[in-house]
Write a structure and sequence with these properties.
- The protein is mainly alpha-helical.
- The protein is 74% helix and 0% strand.
- It has eleven helices and no strands.
- Helix 5 packs antiparallel against helix 7.
- The protein starts with 18 loop residues before the first helix and ends with a helix.
Length: 225
């Protein structure tokens, strides 16, 4: 069943939330996790939160605004760490390892995140897609570009296109959670547990580093060029 949403959204996400707005976001998040779906109604969210559904408009403009605020809230921790991670006095390889784990854990903590991203980017309004691009896609792409460049200059990474890298990492996260249902039907695999998440982090580290790290014997020469 297609999700029908009001596509007129606020031009700016709320910069602060009061307890009522937070209750609405928490209720929406819990319902999406419980149902393994983002198809939840305002009446369901209101009942779960104990808040009048009319207050969604007051705090978020409409349901699209609530969904955007929920995605922004859930992505905020990882997004806020990007500049901090770049500034740390550790190697680019160590930074990338921390980033891979952080992104996958964020998707695991909020398993509906990928569906929200897909919906808001491709099935909602142009305004919603622009907002998601501003607070999620663009900062991640910029972070990847800068970290990859740092790794190349340090002689640790081979030249890697940041758009292709973004597609590989975020696409891998996306399919683990978004495609899990299809894989379950085809192969009988179970849900994404904490153990599966840990194993996937190890798998992605090995896959990514195996394809882009310079051998230690070449690093000094590459950095000196």
């Amino acid at each position: 069943m297609a999700i029908q949403l009001n596509t007129t959204i606020p031009t700016r996400l709320p910069t602060g939330r009061n307890p009522t707005a937070e209750k609405l976001l928490v209720a929406a998040s819990e319902l999406m996790i419980e149902r393994a779906s983002i198809d939840v109604s305002l009446s369901d969210i209101a009942q779960k939160s104990g808040v009048n559904a009319a207050l969604v408009k007051y705090h978020f403009g409409n349901k699209d605004g609530l969904l955007l605020a929920l995605l922004a809230r859930d992505a905020a921790t990882e997004m806020s760490q990007l500049e901090y991670l770049l500034a740390q006095p550790i190697s680019p390889t160590a930074k990338l390892r921390l980033h891979i784990g952080g992104i996958i854990r964020a998707y695991h903590q909020f398993p509906y995140m990928n569906r929200l991203i897909h919906f808001l980017l491709h099935e909602s309004s142009a305004e919603a897609a622009d907002e998601v691009s501003k607070f999620f896609v663009a900062p991640l792409l910029d972070f990847h570009r800068r970290l990859l460049d740092e790794g190349v200059r340090a002689g640790e990474f081979r030249e890697v296109d940041p758009v292709l890298f973004y597609t590989s990492l975020i696409g891998a996260c996306d399919h683990l959670f978004f495609g899990r249902q299809a894989m379950s039907r085809a192969t009988g695999v179970g849900p994404v547990t904490d153990e599966v998440c840990r194993e996937y982090i190890k798998h992605m580290e090995a896959l990514i580093f195996g394809g882009m790290l310079n051998p230690p014997s070449e690093r000094g020469a590459t950095a000196a060029e």
